[in-house]
Amino acid sequence: MTYTFEPLDVQAKECTRLFDIERRMTIYQTPAWLEFLSRTQNGDPVFAALKEGSRTIGHFVGMIVRRWGFRILGSPFPGWSTAYMGLALDSEVSRGRAVQALIELAFQTLDCSHLEVMDRNLTVDDLNGLDVQYRLYRGFQVDLTRDEDDLIADMTSACRRCIRKADKSGVVIEVAGDPAFANEYFAQLQDVFAKQGLVPTYGVERVRLLIEEVYPTGHLLLLRALDPQGKCIATGIFPHANGVMYFWGGASWRASQHLRPNEALQWAAMRIAKRMGMRTFDMGGGGEYKRKYGGAEIEVPWFRKSKYPLIARLRNVARNASAIHQWVSGHLRSSHDSIGFSMRRSWTTSCSHRNVL
Q1: Which end of the chain is less enclosed by CB atoms within 10 A, N or C?
Q2: What is d(CA 200, CA 254) in angstroms, rounded to the nearest whole number?
Q3: pTM, full prediction
């Protein structure tokens, strides 16, 4: 029997009733996360029921945004600071057939010109014969059902030494929840990017809105690392839902990295996640440094399809332009900071010679 999607006229805050929240919904499909996306991306959430005849066999969550004058259906779309969305299906449902129905929903029912989807349970085989393009979203995930001794034993010896050094150096990890956290995190993030001559790909307002929308639901863990003097030297953001904790972002001051706060933060997040009943710690995409934490490698296809060839070209141009803008902004900021430092150094030298207090 044919699969078809039926759009549902509901608000983001009402969508929880569409899912078996104990089994299928990722944090990125929750009402709070969709409110966060709506506010940061200026989009309209989309909910649809997958039907086989009159029977509902799954749901889809996404959001329509307007780019380059076209309607884009993302679930998610690059740049949203969001991972797995896509489909929530009954176990026996064919994901390949569901994707074909989703393409028809996007282009025919919703009159969109471009579709992008990343579904954690989708495989490359599911996309065979569907005339879509995809890239593999690679990352690492840790099995938290094992005991702590096994978890730390699977880390590299260098990683274990870093965790021990942080402990011996007096680094303390605390659970945060105060308004100052967003500014602390973003300032450290700027320092991380500055090391590479870049600037962050988003602003501090995105961090504030994430905390504002998701933290009150109890599905966002915020951690900060404190040095022996009580100064915040590193931060981490970890959303979670339905047995899975995710690493959304982390940052630290370069001057304090010798204390190894980043490794201590990740280990603390794993231990807290275990106590919360999480089964998996998904460390997010990319980053060879994540291998040292002992997780298994994962590959998830992030597929896209355009109604017109022009859109694919515009997407690539926009992606390249964004990377160039990030690089230029970073180097301009670096140059500005260098000039400012030189001026401050000259002024300090001049003042010291004049004994100005």
Answers
A1: C
A2: 15
A3: 0.86
Euclidean distance between CA atoms 206 and 208, whole angstroms:
5
Note whether 117 and 302 are within 8 A (CB). yes
Cβ 241 vs Cβ 30: under 8 Å: yes
Low-confidence ranges of the chain (pLDDT < 70): 10-23, 314-357
266-308 per-position pLDDT tens digit:
999 999 999 999 999 999 987 889 999 999 999 999 999 998 8
Q: Which residues contact 47 (CB under 8 A, 6 or more apart)?
A: 7, 8, 10, 15, 18, 59, 60, 61
115's CB contacts (< 8 A; 6+ apart) are: 72, 73, 74, 102, 103, 106, 107, 304, 305, 306
Return the amino acid letter for 81. Answer: S
pLDDT in tens, 172-209: 999 999 989 999 999 999 999 998 899 999 999 999 99
- 151 burial via Cβ count (<10 Å: 0-12, 13-18, 19+): buried
- Residue 133's DSSP bridge partners are 304
> H or E stretch including 227?
none
